[in-house]
User: Which sequence fits this backbone?
């Protein structure tokens, strides 16, 4: 089965609608999705940004919130603006990486919903614990795993891979042949490309 | 007839497919388009950018060129990468503003084609003169008009209006109620919104 890599960060706003919609769209195309959480902030830092560009450039930020609200309405996704923004996504990403790959999509969607639907602080251990418990997992064991050197190393390796592929934002679809599709608005186009529909 | 404002800069890459496609899409919706060329560079300068963000952030630039190439292929638009990039669009914008509003769309599409289809330097008087002559206009008279104080003032007024509306990039659709739609990928959505389809 052909697959496509889905790079996302829990702090990234347009990653939310993408994460909520991608599996259905991929299934319609007989396509498998590899969920690859990564720390977008470290790529931004290399560009000299110590904050989200949506905070650094206020007009762009105002536009993004309105556009995201319209986008969510369009796809019947609940939307609440996270406060503060951006949320610190480090622990959630590490936890996603500590999980078995098969549970990562479910966990990731639950984190996005906690953040953008229920207005919870995803940097909090308790938010993640509640999600893990809801998945019938041993929450404190998983969160302890998230602090293991192997997981920190995985986070670094994934970040390096993202940079090597030319990933500069999220969400980003990357096909087997290295074709990049940036943003929720390229979701269908990227999935089509991955299955040879150009 | 309902109308929508189409803000664009000849130096803006995604303004090209938007300019080539907007009139047909608007006509299908019984919508009038008001063509409003403006100097995006002066808005970028206020954000501290003295060059195109696509040059300042190389990964983003590489992505944009590939994405634009795919986009143009998708809509059967010829595509050649302008060199140098960005082109200096000041004279072309002033010339567009010096023209009667009714001739502005035709002139603007011809400038975009000169730049992205035929690889011409749009900063050159001769490129613009050829376009104007092709429109049965008195080229040197129009280009002289483009240097009039009234036209320079109009350029400034339009730039101020763009800032006031929150325009931070191009192309940008702005509806009567002040709703913004940024980018070629929001073209259909913005036109739909302008005619009340949400």
Assistant:
């Amino acid at each position: 089965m052909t697959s496509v890599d889905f790079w996302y960060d829990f702090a990234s706003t347009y990653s939310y609608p993408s994460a909520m919609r991608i599996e259905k769209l991929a299934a319609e195309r007989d396509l498998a999705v590899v969920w690859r959480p990564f720390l977008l902030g470290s790529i931004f830092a290399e560009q000299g940004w110590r904050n989200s560009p949506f905070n650094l450039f206020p007009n762009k930020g105002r536009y993004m919130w309105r556009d995201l609200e319209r986008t969510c309405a369009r796809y019947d996704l609940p939307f609440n603006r996270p406060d503060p923004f951006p949320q610190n996504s480090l622990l959630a990403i590490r936890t996603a990486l500590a999980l078995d790959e098969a549970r990562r999509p479910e966990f990731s969607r639950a984190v996005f919903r906690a953040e953008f639907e229920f207005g919870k602080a995803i940097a909090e251990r308790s938010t993640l614990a509640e999600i893990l418990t809801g998945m019938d997992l041993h929450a404190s064991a998983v969160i302890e795993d998230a602090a293991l050197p192997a997981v920190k190393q995985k986070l670094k390796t994934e970040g390096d891979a993202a940079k090597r592929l030319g990933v500069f934002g999220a969400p980003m679809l990357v096909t087997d042949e290295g074709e990049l599709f940036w943003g929720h608005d390229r979701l269908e186009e990227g999935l089509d490309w991955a299955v040879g529909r150009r």
Q: What stands out?
A: Chain A has a mean pLDDT of 96.
